[in-house]
User: Fold this.
Amino acid sequence: MIRLFRIGGIPIRLDAGWFFVFGLIVWSLASGYFPYVLPGGSDGAYWAGGVVAALLLFTSVLLHELSHALVARAHGVGVAAITLHVFGGVSELETEPPDPRAEFGIAIIGPIVSVTLGGLAFAARQVAAGHDWLAALFTYLAVVNVVVGVFNLVPGFPLDGGRILRAMLWWWSGRFERASEIASRVGMGVAMLLAALGVARLLAGEPTGGVWFLLLGLFLFQAARRAHDVARIRSRLAPVTVASVMTPSAVAVSSQAAVDDVRNGELAALELGSLPVVDGDTLVGFLRRVDADRARGRAFSVAEVMAPIRPDVVVAPSDSAWLALTRLGNNDVGRVAVVDRGRLVGMVAREDVARALSAPRPSLDRAA
Ligand SMILES: [Zn+2]
Assistant:
């Protein structure tokens, strides 16, 4: 996973598979689409066109994801990260939408944005008529954006259409967990249909389309099953408080301490990537091992090299263990600090949450 940059505080990340699919798209554009619609061009021009078109496609996908993030924020739902991967992108919400209306709005804006981008590209194509390269580029963007928008309406959770389905089931039944379960089951079914379609196309002698649908089906099946698992974990952790899972007496270092002393002392003794930094008992930052190593042998204080406190590295004792798990999974510290009115009162690591999960199941789960 590669961190690109932040937009409005949201980390934008690239999955390793993204490079593979980016290369595949550039290649298919440079050796297929552009030579077909613009015969007689140079190889260099085709490849340059391929790179530009592929970058604009991924910009479109990013805009689709950012629209989800924007509407989510408007409903008070934080976005932990946006990841671009082989089959598009995903916006990870920190919490579930507060109500079915919010879920519906957050889900439907993505396809609306994609179809709108497709329409704009189509209009731009009309304006650019006569400029062959621009027209070919806009035609491509018009088609792929409409395809992305329409495909996302397929009711297979975690596709947008699946979220829309969940919003409707939730609104209709009033039961979020049940709606999640049904929507992710439907998602698994849709995914199997796509994979079967891929096999059918393979058998019909269409290897490229066949392999693509087969892989897409398998990918969506995985995602739907993971969503199903996540729904179960979330329902276990949502009622558990941070206070009941945290490690209360966490090792912290003073902001006035010398970095080198901490590097040879606490950081060497504990196999942790970072330590919370305090002034008295007030949390003021995080000392990461990488920053301490960079300052090695120099007379810096902890305060001079520590990372500042960001919202994704702290939780309150009354927050849910689910929120703590989401934050520690996405921040670069790997843990979250538990802060009560500015005071550091504990730390939560993945193991702490795992312990809560392995505790005996509440009876509700067995009854369902
Ligand atoms: Zn979407």
In short: The longest helix spans residues 43-74. The two ends are 37 Å apart (CA to CA). The chain has 15 helices and ten strands.
